[in-house]
Fold each of these.
Amino acid sequence: MWKHILRNKEFFRADVMWRLGDATKVPSCSQPWFPGWINQRVISREDRSPRVAELFDFEANQWNADKLSQLFQQELIPQIQTMVHKPVRNSHTEDCLIWGRSKSRRYTVKEGYRLMMEGQGGQLQPWQCLLWEEISNWKGILPKIKIFLWRLISRALMLAPNMHRRMPRWSPTCQRCNLENEYETHCFFFCPCSRAVWFCSNFGLRTHDLSLNIVQAIKQCVQGRTKEEVVFFSMMMWEIWKGRNATVINHKKFDPVEINMKYSAAGWQIILDGSWDTSNKAGCAYLIFQRGKIWKIGYNYHTLQSPFHAEAVALKEALMIIQEGRDSGGGEEIEGYTDCQELVKAVMERDISNLSSWQAIEEVQQIIQIVDENQPAIWIKKVDRNAVQQAHKLANHARRNTVHYIGIPRAVNEIEGEIEGSLNETYFQRVPEAPP
């Protein structure tokens, strides 16, 4: 037990503060001595840190407002002036350290160990409570998601650093990207996998502008948003958490596109990719989803002049397949996901003047015509390469084996033996093959 406590001493030190006697021992600017200090950074305007007793007028029995304003941020001064325990000259009670997590203000091994094993468990601090009150009043959000958000802002989710505190052998590093420790803001906003989710979504979130503090980051995300946008934000946070857990626990690959398709307003979604080699052999593949469920897949062999040409043909073929099947799908919006930024720019900006492959001009013009004629709209979005890996594998298969297929997913295994046709939600798995 003591090994665990000593290893996590910073966890306990965060809740230690001074209780004032005569205040002659307590440095005013380097150690916590009033309630707001524990979770609000105090910034001194002077290099010298006087003792707390020097800030108190014992004759008038009040704090010296001028001295306080020279040392502390203005919003902290009222918290100091309203303290219950003030310094007392010649006090028989010495300045002493107390522990803020206990009602008795005394630290015990039993209480410390219990809180450590509960991660960051404990009462919410005042600024956390304000956000929680706001969240609890959000309408249209399931209770389980509100509880999840409460655990998030109270830092009680079992993220990797919390697991590391319990079990030192557990790495604190994010298992999705292996780049940084998996703190709250990293998990939900800064991890490349989570960034891809927000990038694909219609929420319009610039993650690089967010605070490193999870409470402040959430406030930034929902400030000025409509009720519908707040609900959407909550659902996306929940799905990121579920996707993260599926990766850590079940070793399932994190798929940003799959998460977005669950809450997309579009009735149709396309994941597409092209495969090409220098002999002009090309494969074009697409996975088509109708209201979030797999509808059809297609992969075709072609002789094309460039990778961009293959990407454009894949998009054109997918759009034409959807047009043919509109009787069963109505006139919903269509979202296409590709890793080709050039194709997105050409279609969405209706600009074919600077294409890298002039041979693809005809296909791009046909795509633009379909987009212009479609009501409601068609949206083509740029995503990370990992998000289109299923389509990429099918395109490789078509190119290498000069094969064609369009149909329902469960028929894939019967048509082409090299591709495993089992469908796990929206995932296709490919039998490993030799590199080209």
Amino acid sequence: MPLDSQRHRPLLPRLTQRPPHELEATYGGEGNSQGRKRRRPYTSKACNFCREKKNACDGKPECSQCLRRGLKCEYRMITDALLRAIPPGTQLVDKEEALNNAKAAELLDMLKRVPDDEVLEALKLLRIGNEPAEVSSALPKYDVGLSQVALNRAILPPTQTSLEFELMMRHPVAYPTWAPVQPSKLDLEFLLLPSKIRWDGTGPTLTTGLADGRSYLSPYGHRRGERSPDASSMIGPLRPSTLYDNRLLGVDISQWTDVPITNEFSIAVLQLYLEADHPLMPLIEVDLLLDGLLGQNEFCSRILVNALFAWACQGYAVFEPEATVIGHAFYNEAKELWKNSKETQATDHVCTVAAIQYLSITAVSFGAGAEYVEFLGDLLEMSRRLGLFNVDPSQTRENDVNDSADHRRAKNQIAWVLFTCLTFFSMHLHQRLIEHPPRVPPPDSTIYVARDTRDPGMPKDHQRRIYNAVLLREHCHLFLIVHDMIQVMYGAEQTPYAKAITLAFAEETYKRLLMWADGLPLEMAQGDQCTHHAMLLHIYYHLAIIDLFRPLLRQNGAPRQRLHAFRSTEATPDAVYAASVNQLKRIVLFYRQNHPESSYCFFWHSALLYLANAMLAETKISGHGPEWRFYFRLCMTCYQTLYTGFRLAKGITLSLLSMALEKGVMDIPQARAIRKDLELRGKHHEISDLVPVFWVVDLDLAMTDPSAAQAENLVQRFQDVQLCETTGNNETVAQEPRYDQ
């Protein structure tokens, strides 16, 4: 055999060449038994996005890559081959014309954000012959602080020597490393414009999951009309979804209230409440509550149902503003029932305690002045009588062996739920409400856990019980730590908050908070599939850290101090505070973008309050970029959206505007535009200008002057700026002071 034949492998005969369209049908198809990878089809052109990302472009007018991402597909007018053939130095574009076009585009973008009167003024300037650049310079600047350069600087990863980097590496559950924000992917119109309401042609439909596929009409039992012409920019009603629990179908709401509503309306309101709010404040365990609504146990009463609906109708008002009127009717009936209960000295019961809590938070969200204070006092007193909390440890615990197992379980649960709620409420009032926590141990979620909740074979109701139990357990453990903070910050010694926190106490408490976060179950970690309830758990966590270190910040007059538990040379209270503020920024942005509950769940508003305060505080610190303006405007937008259902949002918004005007970081036209939007979207509110007493908004000022930091005083200062408009043919503003930005 020749030597060459031993060195080379024998070649297979050449395959018969087939037409390209047959090859395309074979590769990657079902008949491709060898599983060869489909070849990328050749195209002589690619869109701008695919060129930049080096993606495979199919060359179609709207390529598949842009279509999948919802991007505008654009192509260069001149190909690379032609560009290479053009001699160097040749001018292809009239630079002056290109500059004018850019100025016109900048003006158009600016007109989208300014008030209507400014738009009309700009149009007048254009019609008399002014260039776009001249008109742009004449308009007040409404920069949201999200320029490409500023944002890129804001999202740079922390340096390796920083405390934030150490926290991200050692405690990734509490301080996850977020993916960089791409401005091109942010829907600024959605983020920075208050959401409107949209009804489709049939209203929200709830599918029961039963064999007959029955559906139910929209609230009030009738169909809605046609959609608004600008419906594309509005929030739609809840999409058809599986009914939370089929037991809702058997509820006859007329047995529990004199407010004339349909069963369909009650189902819609309860559906939204049970999905969005109840896991965050499960005063009555959901199965006990649903069975009680059917009359099968003792865990339901007329006062409880009326108080619950008074609260729940506010969230539902985002989809149907008239629900606020129904909510007021429930509120008034619940108040009358509670008045009669006190006059007759009715027996204390867990249902009554739950009802008073609903009445209290409803009065707060109504902005009903001092009305909530009476409910809060009644709640604390009845809770003490029932032995839920605030019981002196030296007192002998009453024997409850005669109570049923369900009653003991309900009593233990409401004790801890109220403990978490009132402890968090103390952070807003800057008052200690609970001295002694419940004497019973926190609820243990292990009694529900039989197997992995991700098991597809596990019934959904069992998954729900496990999830709610784990969420409640983590809330209890977190707020036990916060309770110890409250004891020091607002304890009986009446030491000013600014002086009550020492570095040693802050370090020890922060260590406990980090250990709590490290022990969170995986399903409670932040991620793209994190539930809105878990996101709020992280919000509460970072708010506690911000309050813990606020008195130790240099911007508040404290000396520079170092935390010895960390290796970073930059481990200071200011660094811890900044790390949690950065997390809060991303949480608020993510929550607003990805969770529709941001429009109708009021429990998350505290994140907006704390972030807005932090952003206003940044304006007086040198070295901070202008991105604070974007996050402050984002908080205002979210409050404007929440105002559709919750009256308190207006008082907080006006208070924050007052703070911004006093700091000189906002112009009068901007504040006037926000106030005008609030007035337009709040027409359905019976009384819209009240705020709850003692409600703290200016968090830094509250350390030294709590009274001046409260909403009622801040709103009054806002009114004193004399933003009142005079009505006439032309809109004017009386005595407008001007502030430098």
